[in-house]
């Protein structure tokens, strides 16, 4: 099969890395997989950077459309001033140009495409013979613009009165985005479209949405390279990274450590309630870590190399995932693959991988006291951590490899092309 993945980037960001890993798994399985991306960061020759039309008229139209769209988004959201979560339009300055570079594909697999793919133009221009799979990495595709609804729930009926918008009413910008998405989807034949969510929670939310109700939605978990993400020697890892050998080490990581949804304030509250002495917090991610933690903190910055990441995970005693809403929790999967158990909130799709008493411990969302209790229990029980390390590694090898993910997607693609359901 000729499979083309469409994504804003190949390896910059969690969703992009997940898309690229799927592409790698399919390539290793012998499939003809390529990626079309807005920004290319890897050296993979099968990843192609989107090349917009070079003529002067097209360039002028893109610039004008981009300025107009950005102005409209700023006017309605005010997100730069208020620090709100990400909010996206369904439109793009590229119009139908992205679809034009997908005409050779039998399967078009969309990923994180906000600001890159224009819904109406894209779905109108893709070849009728092509099957479309959309891998959902967050809630954005089935809402009126937010990527996580923070419990709003309005996407189940229709959007409007959006908490993220500066101008809120029943006919606000979120309803306009929702209406355009609905119109674009109504033109699609459900027989040639599938949605694949990265967790059971996200799949359930998509099925309950007012936009995706008539489409086939299923959960297919992420996979990873289990050789790159594998347990490393803890003492050596700490020596290389400059982490004190004798301390209890907690690890926290996020694409942006200042993303409110990632729960850093709740982590700070939990740290202040810990009973375990000699704890050091290690953080990874873009941006400067806020200085509120009650324990010594080592910030390693943004790490792009998987083997270096595996050393960091292996250096930790416990990985902490205090996200308040999360589609899956790819960092938790990486940590468990490296033999480090996870203490987390039971948010969204996190329980798909953080399984109580097997790969980690869970607390109720936002319960910093419960999170502290889970961390203390793990730090105080070396035998329990060792057993979770063993069991977690077995689960990853059985359920979360690139080969397993690729096999599940191949079955999905084949069912789509054959017109049969799985």
Low-pLDDT regions: 79-84
Number of domains: 2
Provide the CATH architecture of the largest domain. Answer: 3-Layer(aba) Sandwich
Mean pLDDT: 90
Instruction: Please name the fourth-level CATH homologous superfamily of the largest domain.
Output: Glycogen Phosphorylase B
Broad structural category: alpha/beta
The total count of strands amounts to 13
Q: Whole-Å distance between the termini?
A: 18 Å
Q: Tell me the fraction of residues in β-strands, as a range.
A: 15-25%
**Separate helix tally:** 14
* Subunit arrangement of the protein: single chain
Instruction: Tell me about the largest β-sheet.
Output: 7 strands, parallel
- Highest-level CATH class of the largest domain: Alpha Beta
